[in-house]
Amino acid sequence: xSRTIYLxxxxxxxxxxxxxxxxxxxxxxxxxxxxxxxxxxxxTAEPVFACLSSPHYHASAMDGYAVKAASTFGASETLPVQxxxxxxxxxxxxxDPLPQGYDAVVMIEDVHYIDENTIExxxxxxxxxxxxxxxxxxxxxxxxLPANHIIRPVDIGAMLAxxxxxxxxxxxxxxxxxxxxxxxxxxxxxxKPGDIIEYNSRVISGLVTEWGGQPKVxxxxxxxxxxxxxxxxxxxxxxxxxVVNAGSSAGTEDFTARAVAELGELLVHGVAxxxxxxxxxxxxxxxxxxxxxxxxxxxxxNCELFLRPLLGKMLGIEPGLRETAKAVLARRVVSxxxxxEFVRVKLGQVGxxxxxxxxxxxxGIIMSLVRADGLLQVPKLTEGLxxxxxxxxxxxxxxxxxxxxxxxxxSHDISLDILGNLLKERFPRLSLSSAHVGSLxxxxxxxxxxxxxxxxxxxxxxxxxxxxxxxxxxxxxxQVTVINLMYRQQGFIxxxxxxxxIKGIEDLVRNDVRFINRQxxxxxxxxxxxxxxxxxxxPELIAGYDREEYTHMAVAVAVASGTVDTGLGILAAxxxxxxxxxxxxxxxxxxxxxxxxxxxxLINALMEIIRSDKFKVRVAGLGGYDMRDTGKVLMQx
Length: 637
Ligand SMILES: Nc1nc2c(c(=O)[nH]1)N[C@H]1C(S)=C(S)[C@@H](COP(=O)(O)OP(=O)(O)OC[C@H]3O[C@@H](n4cnc5c(N)ncnc54)[C@H](O)[C@@H]3O)O[C@H]1N2
Ligand code: MOO
Fold this sequence. Notes:
The structure is a single chain. With 637 residues, this protein is α+β, with helices and mostly antiparallel strands. It folds into 5 domains: 12-26 and 173-315, MoaB/Mog-like domain (Molybdenum Cofactor Biosythetic Enzyme, Chain A, 3-Layer(aba) Sandwich), CATH 3.40.980; 31-55 and 136-170, Alpha-Beta Complex (Molybdopterin biosynthesis moea protein, domain 2), CATH 3.90.105; 59-132, Beta Complex (Molybdopterin biosynthesis moeA protein, domain 3); 321-397, Beta Barrel (Beta-clip); 439-636, Periplasmic binding protein-like II (D-Maltodextrin-Binding Protein, domain 2), CATH 3.40.190. The radius of gyration is 34 Å and the shape is flat. Its EC number is 2.10.1.1. It holds the Pfam family MoCF_biosynth. Belongs to the MoeA family.
């Protein structure tokens, strides 16, 4: 099979125009009558008018006595009015029809009983007082809902009250979702290298449901051009929109564009957006066909950019609109000119501003969408945005949620995940969001006012003390509180059974030992360099000293895959991959908290969790941790 043609690179607006202008069918879908009770979330196709008034009779609004208002006029404490029950006053309950000839209700609490047949009142009631007159709520013929309205629970109540038992709603657009690729396997299948768990169709299906459509997920179509043609043809016959996932790019088996061109009209292949560039937009038999790139982030973004507005046009609504907010950018974002780039960001309210921290931009990282709080569009006319720039971000969470988030930036440790989880368990409104940029990165974020807490473990070479000397040096003009989170074991991560018999730092210079290092500025790297210096070992003699990884887990993966024999890291990382661990030393891991946040509700709640037995027991249970000083204040500047 020859490769597909080169991709276009047309601007986003041009792509949208080309696509939406060509959808020449009446884009709004037909309507259908459905029982009002089952109409939640559907879109009204026409205005809904009340058939009945509500109430449809004069109803007592209170428990009491129906009276003629005129008979109560003049009543007072000194001149009470007495009424004969059953004649001048008739007992009624809330909701009862008002008996003929009466025009007001006296509440039961305002009635004195004189004898079996007589009541007395000391206050007059006005005509129609305590009565719900016909049509108080709804008058027959009144409009209950306009067209193009998404039906909510209260709307269902009002329609039923108004005698509307069936409602005309837009037919849900049926979206056929075709996952393609020979390498795809259904979730739960046994995996061999090269197999990819097929989950995009489920994500797209969820989005379609959220946006008011009716998803129909097809089985996996392998990379077989004939079969793809056949399936797209079938899908077009059955659905209102067809989404083909993957096979959008320039690989040898990327057939989607060719299939769309052969079956109908290929309008666009390749848009100047990042991620999601190789998107395909076409028409087959007048029906829109969207070819969506395989990488999950690209897939979701393309759905947002093309599928969401398409469903909106068919339904007459704008589904899934999100709030936006102004935020300050924590780090520079470089982005090529001429491309609309969409960057996922973490958001946190630190002091009175929302800080946006750009996240990993890999299109294959679905976790980045799980963790993201918002989306930033870097416009195509710029080459990026500077740190400190004020930007507008689309919010994935409410402003209230963002206000209730503890922002942690710095070194990562699994105990932070446990902390975040326990915080949410105890205070469901609160969250912990952590960005992992290393100990030094955390201190710098504190300095720039971009986080509430920073986790660090940095050994000072001169004093042999942890963290405090760095804080004194780097945060001279800032008042902070430093608390201990835990002590943890650092050591050598080695293959099961420690085949190379690594026992200490000295073994790293052995000819048969291949090492993997951590990046400069990482606490673990500082620790290694400290020991090498102490023992007078020349780093040049270590095979692999120059090879750097950025996380404990990456070091463990290198050991597990056999490309190296050892690297320095924490016990939890070794355990996670079923590797062995040779302890080297215990290090102190502290949290730095700026003074202005120390007594805020957010940090008080966090401290409550840190100091709880539950937290200490859970972390200690992981192995390799000591919680003797957890929560203790070590320094207050
Ligand atoms: N030479 C070039 N190579 C690539 C280009 C390019 O312009 N020139 N574009 C890159 C970009 S950008 C993207 S995005 C991808 C798009 O690739 P395809 O749409 O052809 O998709 P595949 O190659 O089949 O799959 C890519 C990747 O996506 C994941 N995937 C696919 N389907 C599913 C699914 N149903 N569920 C979960 N995950 C799925 C999987 O990780 C695949 O490996 O092309 C680049 N290459
Ligand atoms: O568009 Mo690809 O979607 O950049 O990764």
